[in-house]
């Protein structure tokens, strides 16, 4: 509340300016951020307070907003109900996590014909506060799928700078790994190594169920088939089993573009397996070897073409 007081201006009238708005807390997806680690350890984020209004009709400055930058693919969930409040799925997507309070109005707003000396003014509102959970879902262009031990992690490590764990036993990979596959100077795609899928994965068996969610978010699938599985299973049966898991989990996954590759093709048995698969699915199957590097450029180029065509 303020009144204009100045020499030679009798009864200058009310001139209390408005208070500034409090700063918001905004969560923004930014493709230059690759993980949530920079938010770990810091639990409270508060927009700055707006400044008070002053005399001479001067309004208080708004408090600056706080912007939390997170990788695209971050889900904002309600802490209690775990309801998804926002899916920040693309660069620059924004979510207003907590709104700063509105500034109060100064007494100049309260002048009327009958009340020319208003002593009324408003106090600023309190801002809102909210507790949210941030969860990063990966967004890869291409997902590597297949039975455990098919050679998925090895392939990812050959094609990108990712360093997933590799071993000659099933279920080596417990969490998806991401790698950027570069072709020449200016073309690239993001490849995800997804933990091995087994029968019943759609219903939660093995590690599969949780990771079928990640498969769902990829645009192209590369299905790897091991020619001589250590568990003596039949490669063709394995191929069909994975396709069936995809179908049971989500029918729409069966129409997602899929490239099929027989791995470990430096082993002599692999050619017969590739031919059988081609007969079954009616289109060419890649023969690749992460050991010799054979077939890798062909596969990568084809993946890139399919992505470009989408
Ligand atoms: N001979 C040969 N062995 C390979 C090739 N690629 C992978 N392997 C071997 O196959 C085994 C399994 O490879 P991984 O890359 O761990 O298989 P994965 O599909 O990621 O397996 P999970 O993570 O358990 O699902 C390892 O012993 C690899 O060394 C290949 O091209 N030729
Ligand atoms: Mg693996």
Brief synopsis:
This protein is an alpha/beta fold and about 300 residues long. It is about 20% helix and about 20% strand.
Count of DSSP H/I helices: 5
> Any low-confidence stretches, pLDDT <50, length ≥5?
none
In the residues, how many domains can be counted?
A: 2
Class of secondary structure makeup: alpha/beta
Task: State the fourth-level CATH superfamily of the largest domain.
Answer: P-loop containing nucleotide triphosphate hydrolases
Bound molecules: guanosine-5'-triphosphate, magnesium ion
Shape: elongated
Radius of gyration: 30 Å
Task: Enumerate the strands of the largest sheet in spatial order, edge to edge or round the barrel.
Answer: 8-9-7-10-11-12
Number of strands: 12
- Name given to the CATH architecture of the largest domain: 3-Layer(aba) Sandwich
According to CATH, the fold-level topology of the largest domain is Rossmann fold
Query: Overall pLDDT, averaged?
Result: 89
Q: What helical percentage do the residues reach?
A: 10-25%
How large a portion of the residues is in β-strands, by DSSP E? 15-25%
> Which CATH C-level class of the largest domain is it?
Alpha Beta
The largest sheet is: 6 strands, mixed
